[in-house]
Design brief:
It is a single chain. It contains 1 helix and 21 strands. With about 325 residues, the chain is an all-beta fold. The strands form 4 sheets. Strands 9, 11, 12, 13, 14, 15 and 20 form a 7-stranded antiparallel beta sheet that branches. Strand 13 and strand 14 form a beta hairpin. The chain starts with a strand and ends in a 49-residue tail after the last helix.
Length: about 325
């Protein structure tokens, strides 16, 4: 099982919300802990919502009447009430998992602290966030921050073998200076030709998000979901798979980077799935719907393979 927990306190933390995925039981357990666990809420949740080695996203929304939990954009069938004052929460912990499962990133609504071994990326400008695998077409590098008026320039960088090779440098230069976003790359011979576009709107004390989308031969930059200017091509001598680390730099007067994540949305998003199936005949209880149940187990006795009868000209659709 693996869980997300909103808590306050130290060793004997009060748990405001415990979201515990238990794939082996086809259920999610929602609960809280105050001097002991309280009454559970158990939404039904099929283990086939997960797929081996595929990314997924869990989102928790806080509403006046309780918590709403989403998996890959779809809300769970039951909600969880407020049993402890939400304003008392002071940290989030990611727990659990085995057999190669791991949490990879955590996005918070403010600069509150996050803890847990499942958050590998640092937002300190002193840290180089090394990649666990090469970047590939379709990857999205997402960085979140809190803006401060009159901040010095701040940037997101995809770095090659050392801190002198920038495959792309996305540099935000707020007023009162240039009021521009500057895109560039840098090799041993220095900076190359800049691409400049208008700086998007930033608000003092407000969170913002920057996405660098790795397309076929070029990058597309987004600010809060909106495309910035033109795309930036991969320059000669650079290859996406040679990027070694992500570097978040700059900022002043209270501007901070808060979160960093690397995802491939086509893997994380809910896939389109067939909802019905039929076949010419059925043998050995191998009904047609087994072929689209989301279970990729090829062992027939695992009850996830269809089977026609021993007749000619059988079909499935």
């Amino acid at each position: 099982s693996s869980g997300i927990n909103a808590e306050y306190g130290g060793a004997n933390s009060v748990n405001l919300l415990h979201v515990d995925f238990r794939p082996f039981n086809d259920v999610v357990v929602l609960n809280n802990y105050v001097y002991g666990w309280k009454t559970e809420v158990r939404p039904v949740f099929s283990k086939y919502n997960f797929a081996a080695n595929k990314l997924f996203e869990v989102r928790i929304e806080v509403h006046e009447d309780g918590y709403r939990i989403f998996f890959n954009g779809r809300e769970l069938t039951r909600r969880f009430p407020h049993r402890v004052d939400i304003s008392s929460a002071d940290h989030v912990v990611l727990h659990g998992g085995s057999n190669g499962f791991k949490w990879t990133a955590l996005k918070l609504p403010s600069t509150q602290l996050a803890t847990g071994s499942g958050v590998p990326f640092s937002t300190s400008t002193k840290e180089k966030n090394y990649l666990e695998r090469p970047l590939a077409t379709g990857d999205v590098i997402s960085a979140w921050g809190i803006y401060a008026t009159d901040s010095s320039k701040f940037n997101v960088n995809l770095m090659m073998e050392n801190d002198q090779y920038f495959m792309i440098h996305v540099d935000f230069r707020p007023p009162p200076n240039e009021n521009k976003v500057v895109l560039n790359s840098k090799k041993q011979n220095g900076w190359e030709r800049e691409v400049r576009t208008t700086l998007p709107v930033f608000e003092n004390g407000k969170a913002f998000k920057v996405d660098i989308k790795c397309l076929d031969g070029e990058f597309e930059i987004h600010h809060n979901g909106n495309v910035l200017g033109t795309r930036f091509p991969y320059r000669d001598g650079f290859a996406l798979e040679e990027v070694k680390f992500v570097w978040l730099l700059g900022g002043s007067r209270g501007m901070v980077w808060t979160d960093l994540a690397i995802t491939q949305p086509d893997l994380a998003a809910s896939p389109l799935r067939l909802v019905s199936a039929t076949q010419s005949s059925t043998g050995w209880n191998g009904v047609a719907s087994r072929a689209i149940d989301g279970n990729t187990d090829g062992n027939y006795w695992g009850k996830s393979c269809m089977h026609s009868s021993a007749t000619k000209n059988n079909w499935w659709m």
